[in-house]
Amino acid sequence: MYDTRFVGGSVPRPDAPDKAAGKALYIHDLIRPGMLYGKIKFSDHAHARIIHIDTSRAERLAGVRAVVTGYNTPEIRIGFIKDNFALKKGKVRQYRDEVAAVAAVDPDVAQEAVDLIRVEYEELPGVFDPEEAMAEGAPLVHETDPRGRPKVDNMVPVPWKFEAGDLESAKRSAAFIAEGRYETPLIQQSCMGTAGCIAEFDLQNNLIIHTKTQIPFLAQNDFNQALAAMGLRGKRTRVIVPTLGGSFGTGLDTHGYEYIAILLAYKSGRPVKIVLTREEEFTALSPRQPTRTHIIQGCDAAGRLAFREVRMLLDNGAYTSWGATTPSVMMLPISSLYRVPNVFYEAKIVYTNNTYCQAMRGYGNPQAAWALECNIDQLAETAGIDPYEFRQRNANVPDEITPMGLQITTCGLDRCLDTVAEKLDWKRKRGKGGARGVGMASLFHVGGSGRVYRSDGTGVIMKLDDFGCVSVLAGGVEMGQGFISALSLTAAEALGVTPDRVSVLTGDTATCPWDVGTHASRGAFTAGNAAIMAARKAREQIFQLASEHFMPRVHANLKRRRKRDPDFELPDFNYERLCDPSEFELRENVVFLKEEPENPMLRVPLEEILRAAHYKEQGTMIVTEAFYDPCNQMLDARTCRGNMSATYIFGTQGAEVEVDTETGRVRILKFVAAHDVGRVINQQTIKGQIYGGVVQGLGYALCEEYKSREGRNLNPNFLDYKILSAPDLDFPIEIECIETHDLEGPFGAKGVGEPGLVATAPAVANAVYDAVGVRITDLPITPEKVLAALKRKKERP
Amino acid sequence: MKKTIRFVLNGYEVTAEVAAHKMLLEVLREGFQLTGAKEGCGQGECGACTVLVDGLSVNSCLYPILEVEGRSVTTVEGLLGEGNRLHPIQEAMVENGGIQCGFCTPGIVMSAKALLDEIPLPDEARIRRGIGGHLCRCTGYVQIVESIRRAAEKMAAQGERDS
């Protein structure tokens, strides 16, 4: 446990005043001199051959400065297996495929020009269901793989298979078994600020791109590759991230529109801005992956989990983005939530002509938790054990190594379970009928970053100025989650200054140190650790300078005092001791002697030491850096084993619900969330993360669904795609942060960004089951489904 | 077709040459460079573009510019006092964690102002209804509602002291 002054408090975020005043600049608010507006022509078909693209009328329209297609620009491959192209040639594989784009002097002209582009297609049969896509004779979405080798099926080549123990024998000897099939829909991240970018070239043909991303440095690499494809090998990219209006995973990959803006900017010689409309945000960004899960779990007579068998089918959509890697994270709870010795997990991913998928907050974990935690309740019921008791009996414990090789260090799962049971008044309210019920679900997630790339590193630079203020340059990205707040508190704490002296600067690849990306709830964890390392170096240098300048400063201050007060006697200090760097301490902007922290005469403001260093002969300055790469491992591609995170996070959520049996409507009466967070950095922002996560999770549970017919999105707006609003939340949400003080975390903290929504939907479903005895297996839990299930139950009790 | 309109913007009389089909939001953002009001959806579903017209909160993305002739428009920029002093509602949003990504914030602040101007001490349900036209994806609204409640209390106390 750490004794802290600022970490653990409840303080406003440094970025809040600008946002409150409407002065924060999002991509929508940025204008560059001479800027053009880009607009994309998307496909009219889910699957079709492109016969001809006629752009002549668009090119002739007054105000149009550039028109691009796949036929008049170099081929730019995108996505992590490079099966996608910035502009499509030959055929389209989904409605959102980009076939052409224009840049014009204003947005209206750009829209008009796009409408003038004529594309002739030859329609092809499409495939829209992942099971049908696996059937023999299904239309091929890709005839060849990215290397040009013929493809014989629609399978995406991924290695997601994990096996531990002896499943078959565990199945034979299990006393109780429960089986279920669970589905989750596509979910749109629904950032309030839509995506966009401004691309421009300097006169040396280096690219500068302001863009909405969570991965500025990986994006820099992607864009450099695009420049190479454009014949600009060796040219550089500078990525600048504006204020982000939310991100939730949308910024984990680079997107077609970014490359199109780059092509348009190069062709026109002008900055080009593309900002997606709300409708485009729905139809042309990658939603959270839908899943179909078949799960079987078994336990012994005492209710101890014996095995878990999970087979999953994921709809990839037409191209491959990070959504295809979410099973690597799903594998964590599937192998390691609760102690279970025998595990089988396999995820198949298939191409379809649906929109291609990405990751969203939780990175596969919400889909996995949905199946796992609903099925745990089924199993507990089969075994005749209360589901809370069942979970407690199987709960993870500290210092445990799971079958996947995950090394659990701190673990607060038992406390999370107890907290939720207590706050829900579980014993009194469970199983009481009357269409009211309580339910709970737990979660397991990475809490110490997650090594999904070869590096899991992050850099921090600490620059001290003449006035005792500190600029902390970080590679991570603020997207609303509170990264800047967490990092400024951690940096202030570690260095020994007050948080008002710290400015966190992020989002510019030209000035900020490298970072692999803000994902996996890793921002505060990794940057916090890097800041602690950089602060340690800065403190060493400060104390070294103090050994030179402390005594002269003290002396000068005392002499000044004597000038004012002739009766003041100069004290006799031990000068030798005041020359030893190890004698000093820095706290709240003041350098003092460890042994005499209270002596007012032996205190020198940090800025005096720093200024003395700058102005002395052969002066010096303090700029330190650190690169933190956690002690975690990448998954072994063959065995899917490896300690992916430096620490893990646990949580339990619970709901009390009332079901209207006339309408099928589920009304939440109370929601409770208890999360093992390691250590709270800022009470205010951590609660914001959990409240926000819970409400996103409740939307996932009750109403959110990205609906499509034959690959075309049917609800690209907030009237038809329902996210919860304030009046919907007329019930208390109670949050408890369980502190387990993780040794690897900055001041004991673990990552908290994603987990808030992971266990929400199964907690609600389990409560609905407790209330009315029907189990909804496909999200969302709509009144229609509840009513149909009630009817079925009545007919076949 | 361009027309000249005259209205009061954040306390100052202004004139603007506008295309008749433009909405208030576009004119504020592009004509006056007041980018505090945001376009989140462009069709009146999210509330990010909310401003006050004659004291009533409106979705400026759906408000025809010609309709503001002779009226008084207040944007989030108009709430800021001398020396960048935040309005009590903005201050409460900062102090109570009502802001995360901040994209919905200016709109919510304006609706909260319209609400508190009408009902100085609304109960929680009324606050929730008062911002019912706004979507926020980050906060889950809990700390926003709390912020508005605290702002109301503070403003009411201030009002009592002043009177």
Explain what the structure shows.
The complex is a heterodimer of chains A (797) and B (163). Chain A contains 19 helices and 32 strands. Chain A has 797 residues and is α+β, with helices and mostly antiparallel strands. Chain A folds into 3 domains: 175 residues, Aldehyde Oxidoreductase, domain 3; 323 residues, Aldehyde oxidase/xanthine dehydrogenase, molybdopterin binding domain (Aldehyde Oxidoreductase, domain 4); 172 residues, Aldehyde Oxidoreductase, domain 4 (2-Layer Sandwich). The model of chain A has no long low-confidence stretch (mean pLDDT 96). Chain B has 163 residues and is an alpha+beta fold. Chain B is built from 5 helices and 5 strands. Chain B has a 5-stranded mixed sheet with strand order 2-1-5-3-4, sandwiched between helices. In chain B, a hairpin with a 2-residue loop joins strand 1 and strand 2. In chain B, helix 2 crosses helix 5. Chain B is globular and about 50 Å long. In chain B, 55% of the residues are buried. The mean pLDDT of chain B is 96. At the A-B interface, helix 1 and helix 17 of A face helix 2, helix 3, helix 4 and helix 5 of B.
Average of pLDDT of chain A: 96
Strand content of chain B: 15-25%
Please identify which CATH superfamily of the largest domain in chain B we are dealing with: [2Fe-2S]-binding domain
Percent in strands of chain A = 15-25%
Number of self-contained structural domains of chain B: 2
Assembly status: heterodimer
Total DSSP E strands of chain B = 5
Helix content of chain A: 25-40%
Gyration radius of chain A, rounded: 29 Å
CATH superfamily caption of the largest domain in chain A: Aldehyde oxidase/xanthine dehydrogenase, molybdopterin binding domain
Overall form of chain B = globular
The main sheet of chain B orders its strands as 2-1-5-3-4
Number of helices of chain A: 19
